[in-house]
Amino acid sequence: MYLDADGGGPRMSKRLSLRIAIFIGAAVVLFAILFLRLWYLQVVSGDKYLAEAQNNRTREFRVAAPRGKVLDRNGNVLVENRTSLALQVNPAKLPEDPAERGAELSKLGALAHMSLQRVRRTMHEQLKIAAGAPVTLRHDVEHDLVYYLQENQDLFPGVAVEPVFVRRYPHGSLAAHVLGSVGEVTEEDLKERRYRNLEPGDEVGNGGVEDSYDSVLRGTPGTTRIQVNALGQPTPGGALLKQPPTPGDSLKLSIDSEVQEAGEGALAARGLPGAFVTMNVNNGQILGLGSFPTYDPTVLTKRMTQSQVNALYRDPVLAPLTNRATQGLYPTGSTFKVITAMAALNSGVSTPSTTIDDTGSIKIGEQTFQNAGGAAFGPVDLVNALRVSSDVYFYELGLKMWNTGALQHWAHLLGIGRPTGIDLPEQTDGLLPSKAWRNKLYREGETDRPWSAGDNVQLATGQGDLQTNPLQMAIAYATVANSGTVVTPHVGMEVDDSAGRVLQEIDPPPRRHVHVDPEYRAAILEGLHEAAQSPGGTSYGVFSGFPVPVAGKTGTVQRPPNPDQSWYVVLAPYPNPRIVTAVTIEQGGFGAESAAPAALQILEAYFNKHATGTSGANGGSPG
Amino acid sequence: MEVARARRARTEPFTTRPGIAERLGLPYMDAPLALSAAVLVAFSVFTLGQATSHDVPGNPNYYTDRQAIYGLLGIVGMLALTRIDYSRFRELRVGIYTFLCVSISLVFVFGFAARGSRRSFELPFFSFQPSELGKLLLVLALAGFVIDGARRGSARQRTVRYLCLGLAPAALVFLQPDLGTALVFAAVTLAVMYVGGVPWTHFAVIGAALVALISIVLVVAPALGVPLLKGYQEQRLTSFLHPSEDASDAGYQQHQGQVAIGSGQVTGRGDNATQTRLDFVPERHTDFIFAVIGERYGFIGAAFVLSLYALLLWRALRIVTLSKNSYGTLVAGGIAGMLLFQVFVNVGMNLGIMPITGIPLPLMSYGGSSVLATFLAVGVLQSIHMQARLSQRSRFAW
After folding, report:
1. For B241-270, what is each residue's pLDDT tens digit?
2. What are the chain A neighbours of B275 within 8 Å (beta carbons)?
3. Of A23, A37, A46, the CB nearest to B265
4. Are residues A163 and A272 in the same domain?
5. Residue A132: what pLDDT?
6. Does residue A346 share a domain with residue A305?
């Protein structure tokens, strides 16, 4: 019998012994499995699991670095940071119960003027990027909401108000187009090489120097590694490793606040769209650059109302975000005559003493080109042609060069219709009409006629298809004034560290050199000087009383059906100019009507500061 | 025979006045068995003290104090059972079996629900889980039925009878629902039947039926839209096959347990432990306490604990062979099977090679019912040992 009710013990049956032996064998095998597995996990692959455990329990949070300041050339602050109170929600500390959670979020949303749906979407989007990290619902929370939340903390578990850095513009809209703004990096941006170290949610410059000098201003975010439990909540043991953020460096601009203010003020006073540039003719430093209408970048740091959004982004006529000084596309009127003169002189078409009889009009083929206002100046040489702005004189030069390409060649050399190299992201190349350009359009059926003498005659006086902007004109004038150096315009002057020590001087090399015959230069400048400050000059009425000798040219663009566009480009002081100022005002009428007085206001501001060497601070007649 | 004589000389109780040790039956106890059980529960208290001091706010010793009391009660219970002749249980088998089934059933009526499952009664000082004690009661009763019915009916009828007797309480426990304990009941039933000599062919049939059942429960029934297991049960059972990164997933938890043990390496991380300290591993004081040991005390600590279980089991299996009668052999075999099954499934689950089934690690996992029931089971083993020694002594003495 296998089992004996009374037996057992030492007299166990053979079959039972076998079964017990198998039982023992099975136990040995099972324990062997456990020991081997334990050995494998802990001794063989312990390193791997230890690393995984370490990785498990820590979470990295980025600590945003404050962006660097932007200063003007005299150290006046143009952009700095302020701390703003951001409403943050820590998802791990919210109630676990979905109903309670929803109730809290909807209550919070009501206080922050957000719908529950928007609160949830915001949280979802940010948590997708950084799971477990606090979610920022809104920046710039009102103080009464902050107090309310502090007093009722127990009603809002997981809600906190944290200070974050926001840009501040002490001078409001001053230099808005130069400065640009700051915004969250977009997904598109992140694909670019220069943003490769960034993460979604980081801030980068949008437009202006905030954009072009982003790597200087941005700084390096710090990191805090904290120990977390399985729910991602920080645990006692706290911060394990703290790498403080490195603030961005400061950028000192070559902008002179007073010149900038004067320029913007002059444009604003006229209330018409326009732009100005004031630049050092020798090194390309920009002292002032502005566009009207402008905007206050402060609005971009806050929640915008719909009307603000519409005014900024959806007005194609006024387009306040457009920087007309670098992005404008305008014909220049008579201010182009300096370039025509350079081309004619250098290509041997004329000499400074070449005299042309200005009868008031010129007939080319079936077209008759007239002087503005129908005036007839009689025989004029170059100086006088510039002084009175004789159109016929330059029509004649344009006609002589119509098929040679000399005008286009020199305009191109002087920088018309091509990139300027300025350190601002917003710029357009413009258009320099040429035989090749028009004939190509004609072949493609885009226009009704090929290149003709009339086109070149138009170009010679800055009318017609020409498209350029104040910056390109300023560079062309500067090149003549400085005897042939095509400067690289720049608004950045110096990179300073946060303590104010100079890290880097910004001094880009010139774009190219052009041969400028001193005789030609003298004649052109003399003509411009007489135009501004001798009787009969086109802007004599504006600059006659200005104590500093200047050399300036008016320009008037016919833009039917709109009123004329006013231009003025001026070099000062004559005969060895340090600065050039180019101003244009859309629908501003004759050059002397609005652009020249605006330029005068800028020069007054500039020379007031350097009054010691000059005869006085009195601005003269505003013509 | 120097050793044998010396042992006899030491265990000559009636030649002199019996001392206190004699009255407690200490000379007849299997010392390594008692010691390994006591050291295990002591190590459990030590581990809980280090790992759970922050678990209950304001009471760092919540788990240690209770586990220590359960351990002491268990040791007292073990000593008491040692003195009782286990053969009495054979006579009480019907009563024991009835009590087993009734107590488990009463949980459905008066039970205290925790996490959607009624398993225990809420008593003044602790909640009592009848199914834990039920494991031992099933062994005692079933062994009795096997001995009793050894000559009645055909082999096939007997097998069916044992299976029904064993699986009825298992089914009750399963309905609580407590899958882990139900599986222990089933394992105990099979262990008793195995030692009881059920033919190999019957086991082969049972094995085939088991495979069919598993495939029906896990594959066919869900495919037909009739899920037999609760979602979390099925997930737990299959998750060890495909560890996942989803934190809410059972596979993730099991993987975290594996990481915890692995990160302990040879010497352990002590208080630098993170996996089991920062809630990455769930149920660290109960089902996953082995992961705590592995992370805190490393291979040295975990191997030490495993060795204690090996010692415990070796002594239990030795008692199977020593028993003076077949009832003792069956009871000891059932208890050894119960311990082996629980240790292997729990430790295997911690090591990531067995599914999560909610089976506690005997004597290590926090829990009064489990600790007490295990000590009582050890007490029954001691009783079998003592009876064997006494009968040996009488055999030699007379």
Report:
1. 655 444 455 677 778 888 889 988 898 888
2. 53, 56-57
3. A46
4. no
5. 63
6. yes
Count of structural domains within chain A? 3
Which stretch of A44-53, A184-193, A394-403, B293-302 has the lowest confidence by average pLDDT? A184-193
**Residue A610: is its pLDDT beyond 60?**
no
Q: Would the CB atoms of A38 and B306 count as touching at under 8 Å?
A: yes
Model pLDDT, residue A137: 82
Check if A30 contacts B (Cβ < 8 Å): yes
**C-beta of residue B257 within 8 angstroms of C-beta of residue B291:** yes
Shortest CA distance from A20: residue in chain B = B195
Is A46 within 8 Å of B266 when comparing Cβ atoms?
Answer: yes
Contact A8 B266 (CB under 8 A): no
CA-based nearest distance B27→chain A, Å: 20
- Judge if A361 and A430 occupy the same domain: yes
Residue from A37, A485, A200, A338 nearest B257 by CA: A37
Q: Do B265 and A43 touch (CB under 8 A)?
A: yes
| Shared-domain flag, residues A210 and A294 | no
Instruction: Say if residue A300 is in the same domain as residue A162.
Output: no
**Domain housing A413:** 257-613
Nearest to B278 among A2, A49, A230 (CB): A230
Domain boundary among A228, A253, A278: A253
Q: How far apart are the C-alpha atoms of A545 and A559, rounded to whole Å?
A: 31
Same domain, A247 and A294: no
CA dist A288 and A177 (Å) reads: 11
Model's pTM, two decimal places?
Answer: 0.61
A12 interface with B at CB cutoff 8 Å: yes
Is A424 in the same domain as A540? yes
B321/chain A closest Cα distance in angstroms: 7
Region class of A199: left (phi > 0), else alpha (psi between -120 and 50), else beta: beta
Q: For A364-392, what is each residue's pLDDT tens digit?
A: 888 888 887 778 888 999 999 999 999 99
Report how far residue A312's alpha carbon sits from residue A321's, in angstroms, rounded to the nearest whole number: 6
Q: pLDDT by residue (tens digit) across A66-86?
A: 899 999 999 999 999 888 888
For residue A41, the chain B residues in CB contact (below 8 A) are: 258, 261-262, 294, 351-352
- Whether A37 has its CB under 8 Å from any CB of chain B: the answer is yes
Peptide bond before residue A518 is cis, with ω within 30 degrees of 0: no
B317/A20 Cβ within 8 A: yes
- CB–CB contact A2 B197 (8 Å): yes
pLDDT at A617 over 60: no
> Which residues lie below 8 Å from residue A526, measured CB to CB, with a gap of 6+?
A383, A551, A575
In chain B, what residues touch A24 (CB-CB under 8 Å)?
A: 317
Instruction: Assign residue A217 the CATH number of its domain.
Output: 3.90.1310.10
0.85 surpassed by complex ipTM: yes
A465 found inside a domain:
yes
Q: Say if A345 falls within a structural domain.
A: yes
Q: Is residue A428 part of a domain?
A: yes
Q: Which residue of B has its CA nearest to A17?
A: B321
Q: Count of CB atoms within 10 A of residue A119's CB?
A: 22
pLDDT at B271 (0 to 100): 80
The pair of structure tokens assigned to A236 is 């006692």
Residue extents of the structural domains in chain B? 29-111+126-397
Say if residue B130 is preceded by a cis peptide, omega within 30 of 0: no
Domain-ending residue, one of A253, A284, A317: A253
Q: Are residues A139 and A160 in the same domain?
A: yes
DSSP strands (E only) in B123-172 = 127-128
pLDDT score recorded for residue A619: 33
At B139-171, the pLDDT tens digits run 999 999 998 877 778 888 889 999 999 999 999
Q: What is the CA radius of gyration of chain B?
A: 22
Residue B21 distance to chain A (closest CA, Å): 26
Closest CA relative to residue A556, chosen from A595, A608, A498, A600? A595
Check if the beta carbon of residue A3 is closer than 8 Å to that of residue B155.
Answer: no
The CATH number for A513's domain is 3.40.710.10
Residue contacts between A and B (CB atoms, under 8 Å): 159
